Amino acid sequence: MLKTILSIAGKPGLYKLISQGKNMLIVETVDAAKKRVPAYAHDKVISLADIAMYTDAEEVPLSEVLEAVKKKENGAVASIDYKKASADQLHAYFAEVLPNYDRDRVHNGDIKKLISWYNILVNNGLTEFVVETAEVEAEAETPEVAEEAKEVVEAKEEAPKAAKAPKAAKATAKEKKEAK
Q: N- to C-terminal Cα distance for the chain?
């Protein structure tokens, strides 16, 4: 679900990927307005599925962090007002959500953005952050389907080669004189 939700640098809010144009993406705001706008190649666009938060041991995908916030808030909007909260309040809140986050590399703005994104997603009914493993397995190709696809590709590659007639050898000038 988070693969189609995008953040565009310099533009507020979140966007849902609708389509791709020649030199742009067509995106729709994730709010009540549902306004469609283009995102051009020069815009810095990133999918929420590609974002992770720093921890002491490793990076944790944003989907897992959002799921932890959802669990803490019982699926409701965040209890903290990130616009008015102090730095200590933000870090204390985030420590409850992700206890082992890296306090040196996760800044106040990162926490504010996370809470903002969470609120936008929850307010618009997008609350499935972690993809279930059954869904992933259903989307994956079975070995038989993959083998059939491989055979079709190989057949297409061999077909043009077999269809071409061998080139006739060109006679050299010397052979032409001898033939006369």
A: 77
Helix (H) or strand (E) holding 135: helix 133-139
pLDDT tens for 34-80 read: 899 999 989 999 999 999 999 998 999 999 999 999 999 888 888 89
Name residue 46's beta-bridge partners.
7
pTM over cut 0.85? no
The single-letter DSSP state of residue 55 is B
* Burial of 61 from C-beta contacts in 10 A (0-12 / 13-18 / 19+): middle
DSSP class of residue 47?
A: E
Contacts of 175 (CB under 8 A, 6+ apart): none
Nearest CA to 68 among 111, 98, 108, 113?
A: 98
Write the DSSP assignment of 55-81 as a string of letters. Answer: BSSSEEEHHHHHHHHHHHHTTS--SS-
Q: Which of 114, 110, 106, 2 is nearest to 56 (CA)?
A: 106
> What does the alpha-carbon distance between residue 64 and residue 118 come to, in Å, rounded to a whole number?
12
